[in-house]
Structure formats: structure tokens, C-alpha cells
Amino acid sequence: MDELTAALAGSFEISNEPNKTSAPHPRFTQYKQRTSNSDQDTRRKLLLENQKNRRFDFLNHIRKLTDGSWNADPKFKQESNIDDSMEVEEKYSKPGRFYKDQLMLSEWLVEVPSDFATEWITVLCPVAKRCLIVASKGTTRAYTKSGYCMNSFPSHLPGGYRKNVEKETTILDCLFNEATQTYYILDLMCWNGHTIYDTETEFRFYWLHEKLKETQSLQVASSTNPYKFIGLPGFRCIQEDISLAVTSAEFEIDGVLFYHKRTHYTFGSTPLVVWLKPYMLQEILGIVVPDHQMCHMPNDYSNYADHMKKVVEDKERDQKKREERRGRRRKVANKNNSSMEISQSEIVEAHENVSESSAATKIHTGPANNI
């Protein structure tokens, strides 16, 4: 019995690293030991406490997104400083430059919080590409997570069309489904120049859906609004509501996001937004998923342990390839630098030879009265 207890306890260990969804689910990687300051619940409490004292110039940030101007601003840097006394995983990330790293990303749900039913909101995510929407100066642009502008078009978002009455900036966190030509809205950060980055999730979601009700034309494709904008609904985090939402979903579910009601919109991954794949719901939350929503389960999937082992092997192989490519690039760069150094040395030596030659010429061809 003791051996069984130990085995079960070991199966619920989590990583010392933040539980980013780009890595395997922590329940299936057991090579790191759990520590008291790495569990998600402790980190959530620290982040919620520290966000009260967070200082960030969001108006200046919106200006940068609107104008595409990323010049250094000492005042901006000073206001965005974070208390260095915090643990590394509890720091708030700064947004990137040139539209990179502007989105709030999730972690794997490792521990079901004790306040899950009362303080969390469920959002079902369709199969789609995550993107940042910036509507300003009569144009709407969509940027990938890495900051690449993947599309530019008119829309009925405030600021997104040159004939709009509302000319100010709108910023959204979206999922783009190419098959349906639809932008599904996950979150709202700014609407018609009014920033709500530093408001709680519950309010942001409420305001998003209120604004969408006021702008019904966003949900219809037209010549001045070629892509539909649909707000994703939120559900209570109780088994009955999640099960009903999954069963009645009208789109193919890629995964399920869980937002803490009290978190502000932050940059980078956070334990205050967590994520599960559909085929993990029964294992972790006890929710049965319809067969038609299990289509993204890998074909060679047999069980969690084997699948995650394969994921780790694939990631390690890809990492090794990236390191080899970086190594080759470094060798080429070092070779080019060496060639440049040799060329510069030759130029200096040639210049010195010319100087010596000129000096010698002056000596032999000086004025006659000096002889």
C-alpha cells in the first residue's frame, strides 16, 4: 500500500519551471522535484497581490502599438520596472518590441484550484491561429505572437475603417480561423481609445460583449468588414456547465482556457490563465468529451505517459537541430570576422608602407639649397 501511495504521489509532481503550454503537461514529466514556491496556487496568490502595486504606462504602450514607434523612452522603462524581490516565476513580463510578445499566454492546469467553481471562467477555443488585432488610423492589422503582420484589412472596429465615426484605437486578443474567415475574440484590452489592460477579467469580458452588442455589423462579413468578429462566451467552472459547453460547441475545440476572474491582462505566460486539451478533461476534471471533439488526439496516442514521452523526444530532437544550426551560423560569423580582421590588418600595413614610401620620397627630392 505504501508503494502504491508513493507511486501515485510521484505522478502528480510538477516542474520547477513555469508550466508553459509549449512544453508537455507537467503531470507527465516526472524528472523535476516539486518545491514549495513552484506550485501554481502559491504563484497565483503572489501575482494577484503584486498586481495591486504594478506600475505600467499602458497609454504609452497603446501609442506604440498604434504608431508602430518603438524608440527608447526612459520614462516608460522606469514605470515598467518590477520589484526585483519577487521570485523569477512571479515577475510580470514586459511586452516585446515590434508587436512581439504582446499576448497573455496560458500554462497547463496542473492543480485544480480550491476556488475553481467561484473564481474562474471557462472559455472554449476553436482550432485557430492566435493573433493580436490592432485597429487604428483607418486600418485593422493582425499580428502573430512573434510580431509578424499576417493581414491588413478594413473592419467595423473603432479605428479599423477610414469612414468610421469612431477613430480611436481598438486592441483585441483573437483566434483566427481561416476556414470560416472568422476572428474569435478571446479578450479585450482597448476599445476606441479606452484602455482596460489593468482591469479584472470579469469586467473585460463583460465590456467586450457589451461593445459587440452595440456593433452588430462586426458579426457579418461585408466589403467594409471582410472578416467576422465573434466573441467567445465564458462559462462557470463547474462540471455541469463545462460538460454542456463542450457537448454543444458548434466548432471543433482545440482546447479549453480557464481565466481567473481577478487577473489583469498581462504579457507572457501566467498561472492565472490555464489550459487543457479536450482529451485531458476526463483525466483531470472528470468531464466526458464527445467523440467528435477528440479528433485532435494524436493517431498514435495510447496513453498519457507514452504520448508525452514522444513529445519530449520530438522537442529534444528539434532543439538539437536548432543548436546545430546556431553552431553553423556562429562558425560562419567567426570566419567572416576573422577575414575582416585580416583585411583590416592588411589595409593598415599597406597604409604604413605608403606613409614610409612618401617620407622617403620627400627626403630624396627636397629643395636644392638643402643639399
UniProtKB/TrEMBL annotation:
Pfam families xrefs: Snurportin1, SPN1_m3Gcap_bd
Compositional bias annotation for Polar residues: 13-22, 30-39, 334-346
Stored InterPro entries: Importin-a_IBB (IPR002652), Snurportin-1 (IPR017336), Snurportin-1_N (IPR024721), Snurportin1_C (IPR047857)
Basic and acidic residues: compositionally biased ranges: 314-326
Molecular function in Gene Ontology: nuclear import signal receptor activity; RNA binding
Keywords: Cytoplasm, Nucleus, RNA-binding, Transport
IBB domain boundaries: 11-73
One BP term from GO: snRNA import into nucleus
PANTHER family: SNURPORTIN-1, SNURPORTIN1 RNUT1 PROTEIN RNA, U TRANSPORTER 1
Family: Belongs to the snurportin family.
Name of the protein described by the UniProt record: Snurportin-1
Species assigned in the record: Lymnaea stagnalis (Great pond snail)
Lineage: Eukaryota, Metazoa, Spiralia, Lophotrochozoa, Mollusca
